[in-house]
């Protein structure tokens, strides 16, 4: 589907076209046409047809035949805001339970059916809604409708106490991984309790309080389903290569007999109200203290949402913002930002800062500096460029959001659930275009200036003297004695009008068209590979220059990464702020980063602005200023980031793996650098690295655009005359690791409710059609998908972890095999035992014929998803240049997939999966873990990083 982008001013002049209803002619019985929104040629729009079934289910269909895919989304208008006091986390817990099978779909089979179909799937929960979604080849649509309808209408009788207990453990593991074991992870939970009154729907976290989760029962769960999971509280959105009139009979067949649930009323808007500042604080396992100020504002969709967003931009978004200029640039803060977060019932305006230790500021000092910035808004006012850059960003974000069928469907579903208008793109753009400087100053005075806020302090353990002020507010705790039993709801049973146990059979696999590409070589040696994509008027470019971290010496670890960051800063003709402003006014982004082997330059632009964007890219690459001020600031930020990373168990585990696998070589060092290398780093080293290695010959550029080759080539060739040269050849020695195979390397991290586990060995380098590719096929069954042996064992059977996996990774120089998980600390030993059991069994016996068949189907049919978006095409095309192959290599891979025998794949398992040739890294509280780990009777080596 093509989308044409007009200027925002034109969009406003045209206005927002509403949905028009038309008389249905041949709809299935029980289906009513509600509205039709055709494609608009004069504005950005999302065409759709909207229907309703007799049971209240809303159905939205978006036809997009650009790729042979379909995205199916079922959104229920229930999130944590619908929960009862003392029963927090139920909506999110229920999201997990909905993947555990239903009357006609076996346990774990939802994931298996979608994976086998070559698709992807997930579910998410927030305060206001829960959604379940799948993207699959279009021939698999009926199976997706069967799966979603079965868990909507035939779920409760399949729930068992065992499933309940295991998923409850999984949710607790997720909380441990994402909240309790993360720096600042519990901050937001405390903020909600201080901001909203006791019992307010937003006063508890989506994932729930641990005490509430511990009290959860199966009857509670069933009542939650009966109250909120009816078709009349859901929207089914289908987008892709479909025709509405062809799929509506299937929708009615699978969903039409499901009875409606209780009526669901809209919740009243409920922004928080504060009479005075509230101070709260907490100690956490962090390196840097954090201060935040949070003001209540409006609610999603309120007319003041847009001007408040722009106010947040002015204060704290990007390096032109007030907070960056007053706090980050002078190194008073490592980071400072502002944001306006909106939900269905309430929005909040927040400012955050992490003070720089060298500045000697406590959080009381930081609070006063934030308040000074707030008062300075009145003096500064709103500049024309503030409005222009915000509006350009909203336009670009809207257009880029239409590049995938999933993005389109998500927008349709969101807007229907919360506003009853699936296509609000033009309306949102118009709301930002209409914002004036007076509007921004009005909302500033109304909601922020001299308004009360929640001031939150998070400080390192034992450093309470750093807090902004003594706590003056304590959130009320729920007392289980106050629980009030709800009137129980009766069971609902859907009629059986056909054999629901029969799995729908898919039609023929859709034809997959590889991206049509063109090639050229610029006069300075850059290889170019391009492809056309006319779905959106955008251009994406990835330039890969062989100037990555592996070209640093060990002593100069981090120089490549520092150079990349400085290329995002000042140039000879632009300050950092001027460059950012120029890009933002175009709605473009240019980011430079360093990987192991390359310097990567990613460019994203509206095609109409590509010439000006490429001029700025050329300025960044060819005329960097390399200012001492920028270098010193970035150096200090990196040192603080490294110190903060020591509080992150995942970072420690990954660094331990690098050290063990690659020793003292450059590959064994973190790309950002070490404390020693950063302290010793000089700007001259960065300049010398740039002069030696940022050369065009040997670089590779891939681009996906709605512009033709004839239009693009002259634009790309523009930088060739000014940029010449060839870098020295890379010299890299990666000796065999000096490790004790079969040993446990134990890394201590205090205050760890979870342990990070890595089981790793050196393996073959990456290839496209050799042993690396075949090893990936072999690993699919072991740890390469949700239904893999490892994940089903540790997550679904044992409840030890939120997720466990394994895989082969690497580059053309070297590869690794890694199995990993974050597990509950109290089952660290048991988790390692299960990992080793799975590895030993697979190494000795390999996969079964049934597993081989499943893997073939899943990998083969997933090809339809690989080339959908411009970024997906960029990744595919980058492989072609990297390995010097044509698109036809996919045919060779498909032949390998179909012809690889059990014996061949299992021989790879036998060769690479012996635990005795691996090492086990464990990060956690060493003194508590070691006595248990000793029971494994494996050597234990305590490792310091």
How many β strands by DSSP?
24
- Percent of sequence in beta strands: 15-25%
How are the strands ordered across the major sheet?
Answer: 1-2-3-7-4-6-5
Shape: globular
Helix content: 25-40%
List the total number of helices. Answer: 32
Class from secondary-structure proportions: alpha+beta
Overall radius of gyration: 28 Å
**Biggest beta-sheet profile:** 7 strands, mixed
Distance between the termini: 52 Å
Spans where pLDDT lies below 50 across 5 or more residues: 1-24
- Arithmetic mean pLDDT: 93
Description:
The chain has 945 residues and is α+β, with helices and mostly antiparallel strands. The protein is 39% helix and 18% strand. The protein has 32 helices and 24 strands. It starts with 7 loop residues before the first helix and ends with a strand.
Short structural description:
The protein has 945 residues and is of the alpha+beta class. Helices cover 39% and strands 18% of the residues. Strand 21 (801-810) and strand 22 (815-824) form a beta hairpin.
Give the topology, please.
Elements lengths: L7 H7 L16 E7 L10 E6 L4 E6 L5 E8 L13 H8 L11 H8 L3 E6 L4 E8 L3 H13 L7 H20 L6 H9 L14 H6 L2 H11 L5 E7 L3 H12 L22 E7 L5 E7 L8 H12 L5 H7 L4 E10 L4 E9 L7 H18 L3 H17 L4 H15 L5 H9 L3 H12 L5 E7 L56 E5 L5 E6 L5 E8 L13 H8 L9 H11 L2 E6 L4 E8 L3 H13 L5 H18 L3 H14 L12 H6 L2 H11 L6 E6 L3 H9 L26 E5 L5 E10 L7 H13 L5 H9 L3 E10 L4 E10 L3 H18 L3 H13 L8 H13 L6 H11 L2 H11 L6 E6 L1 H8 L6 E4 L2
Parallel strand pairs: 3-7, 8-12, 14-18, 19-23, 19-24
Antiparallel strand pairs: 1-2, 2-3, 4-6, 4-7, 5-6, 9-11, 9-12, 10-11, 13-14, 15-17, 15-18, 16-17, 20-22, 20-23, 21-22
Helix pairs in contact: 1-15, 2-5, 4-9, 10-16, 13-15, 13-18, 17-23, 25-28, 25-31, 26-27, 27-31
């Amino acid at each position: 589907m093509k989308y044409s982008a007009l200027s925002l001013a034109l969009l406003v002049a045209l206005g927002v076209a509403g949905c028009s209803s038309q008389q249905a002619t041949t709809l299935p019985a029980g289906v009513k046409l509600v509205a039709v929104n055709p494609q608009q040629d004069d504005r950005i729009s999302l065409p759709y047809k909207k229907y309703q079934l007799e049971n209240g289910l809303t159905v939205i269909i978006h036809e997009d035949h650009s790729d042979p895919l379909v995205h199916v989304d079922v959104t229920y208008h229930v999130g944590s805001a619908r929960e009862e006091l003392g029963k927090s986390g139920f909506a999110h817990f229920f999201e997990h339970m909905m993947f555990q099978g239903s009357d006609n779909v076996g346990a774990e089979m939802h994931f298996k059916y979608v994976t086998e179909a070559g698709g992807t799937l997930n579910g998410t929960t927030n305060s206001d809604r829960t959604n379940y979604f799948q993207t699959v080849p279009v021939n698999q649509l009926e199976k997706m409708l069967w799966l979603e309808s079965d868990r909507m209408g035939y779920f409760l009788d399949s729930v068992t106490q065992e499933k309940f207990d295991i998923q409850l453990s999984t949710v607790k593991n997720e909380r441990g991984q994402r909240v309790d074991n993360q720096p600042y992870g519990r901050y937001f939970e405390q903020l909600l309790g201080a901001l909203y009154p006791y019992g307010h729907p937003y006063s508890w976290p989506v994932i729930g309080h641990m005490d509430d989760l511990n009290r959860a029962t199966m009857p509670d769960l069933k009542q939650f389903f009966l109250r909120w999971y009816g078709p009349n509280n859901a929207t089914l959105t289908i987008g892709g290569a479909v025709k509405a009139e062809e799929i509506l009979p299937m929708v009615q067949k699978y969903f039409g007999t499901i009875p409606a649930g209780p009526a669901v009323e809209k919740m009243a808007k409920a922004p928080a109200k504060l009479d005075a500042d509230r101070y709260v604080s907490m100690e956490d396992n962090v390196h840097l203290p954090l201060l935040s100020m949070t003001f209540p504002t409006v609610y999603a969709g309120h007319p003041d949402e847009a001007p408040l967003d722009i106010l947040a931009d002015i204060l704290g978004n990007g390096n032109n913002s007030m907070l960056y200029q007053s706090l980050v640039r002078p190194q008073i803060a490592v980071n400072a930002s502002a944001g306006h977060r909106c939900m269905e019932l309430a929005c909040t305006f927040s400012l955050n800062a992490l003070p720089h230790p060298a500045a000697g500021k406590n959080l009381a000092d930081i609070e006063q500096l934030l308040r000074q910035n707030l008062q300075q808004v009145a003096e500064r006012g709103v500049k024309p460029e503030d409005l222009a850059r915000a509006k350009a960003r909203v336009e670009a974000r809207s257009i880029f959001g239409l590049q995938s069928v999933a993005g389109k469907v998500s927008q349709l579903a969101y807007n229907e659930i919360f506003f009853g208008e699936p296509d609000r793109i033009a309306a949102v753009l118009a709301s930002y275009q209409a914002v004036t400087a007076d509007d921004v100053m009005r909302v500033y005075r109304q909601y922020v200036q001299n308004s009360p806020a929640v001031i939150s302090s998070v400080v390192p353990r034992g450093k309470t003297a750093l807090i902004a002020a003594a706590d003056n507010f304590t959130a009320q705790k729920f007392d289980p004695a106050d629980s009030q039993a709800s009137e129980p709801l009766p069971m609902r049973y859907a009629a059986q009008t056909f054999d629901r146990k029969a799995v729908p059979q898919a039609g023929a696999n859709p034809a997959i068209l590889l991206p049509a590409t063109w090639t050229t070589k610029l006069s300075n040696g850059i290889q170019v590979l391009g492809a056309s994509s006319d779905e959106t008027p955008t251009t994406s470019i990835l330039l890969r220059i062989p100037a990555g971290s592996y070209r640093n010496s060990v002593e100069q670890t981090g120089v490549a990464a520092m150079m990349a960051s400085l290329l995002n800063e000042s140039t000879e003709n632009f300050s950092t702020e001027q460059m950012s402003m120029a890009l933002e006014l175009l709605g473009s982004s240019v980011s430079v980063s360093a990987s192991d082997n390359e310097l990567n330059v990613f460019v994203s632009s509206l095609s109409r602005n590509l010439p000006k964007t490429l001029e700025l890219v050329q300025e960044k690459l060819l005329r960097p200023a390399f200012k001492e001020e920028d270098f010193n600031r970035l150096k200090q930020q990196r040192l603080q980031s490294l110190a903060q990373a020591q509080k992150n168990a995942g970072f420690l585990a990954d660094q331990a793996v690098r050290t063990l696998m690659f020793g003292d070589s450059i590959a064994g060092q973190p790309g950002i650098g070490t404390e020693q290398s950063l302290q010793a780093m000089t700007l001259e080293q960065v300049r010398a690295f740039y002069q030696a290695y940022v050369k065009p010959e040997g670089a590779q550029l891939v681009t996906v655009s709605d512009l033709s080759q004839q239009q693009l080539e002259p634009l790309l060739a523009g930088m060739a005359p000014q940029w010449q040269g060839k870098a020295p050849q890379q010299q890299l020695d990666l000796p065999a690791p000096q490790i004790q195979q079969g040993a446990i390397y134990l890394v201590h991290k205090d205050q760890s409710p979870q342990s990070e586990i890595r089981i790793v060995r050196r393996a073959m380098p990456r290839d496209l059609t050799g042993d690396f590719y075949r090893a990936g096929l072999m690993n699919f069954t072991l740890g390469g998908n949700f239904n893999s042996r490892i994940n089903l064992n540790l997550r679904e059977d044992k409840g030890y972890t939120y997720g466990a996996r394994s895989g082969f990774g690497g580059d053309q120089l070297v590869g690794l095999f890694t199995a990993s998980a974050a597990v509950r600390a109290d089952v660290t030993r048991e988790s390692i035992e299960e990992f080793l059991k799975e590895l030993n069994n697979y190494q000795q016996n390999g996969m079964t014929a049934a597993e081989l068949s499943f893997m073939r189907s899943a990998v083969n049919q997933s090809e339809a998803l690989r080339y959908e978006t411009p970024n997906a095409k960029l990744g595919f095309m980058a492989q072609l240049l990297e390995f010097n192959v044509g698109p036809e290599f996919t045919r060779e891979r498909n032949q390998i997939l179909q012809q690889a025998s059990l014996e061949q794949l299992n021989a790879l398992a036998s060769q690479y999966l012996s635990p005795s040739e691996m090492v086990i890294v464990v990060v956690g509280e060493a003194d508590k873990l070691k006595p248990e780990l000793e029971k494994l009777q494996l050597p234990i080596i305590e490792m310091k990083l």
